[in-house]
Amino acid sequence: MTLATDAVFDLKGLKCPLPVLRSRKKLSAMLSGEDLVVETTDPLAVIDIPHMCREDGHILLETIKTEDGHRFYIRRG
């Protein structure tokens, strides 16, 4: 799946809860309908990022396992 994105947010090397906190802050500054790619190496992000999306009304378009972590495609709700 190839998705157009408005921003790529590199959060590699950060541990829980920083990827969620920083993603939430970044998304709050975006317009509804804009897309954000979040890249992480924290193994807990695969649980935390989808949970944040559900709580905050964002759409998790796709999660991809990468060589060193995960890439999340999120549409701002």
UniProtKB/TrEMBL annotation:
Family annotation (SUPFAM superfamilies): SirA-like
Species the sequence originates in: Agrobacterium cavarae
InterPro entries the UniProt entry points to: TusA-like, TusA-like_sf
Protein name: Response regulator SirA
Domain UPF0033 as annotated: residue spans: 9-76
Protein family membership: Belongs to the sulfur carrier protein TusA family.
A Pfam family reported for this protein in Swiss-Prot or TrEMBL: TusA
PANTHER family: SULFUR CARRIER PROTEIN YEDF-RELATED
Domain of life: Bacteria
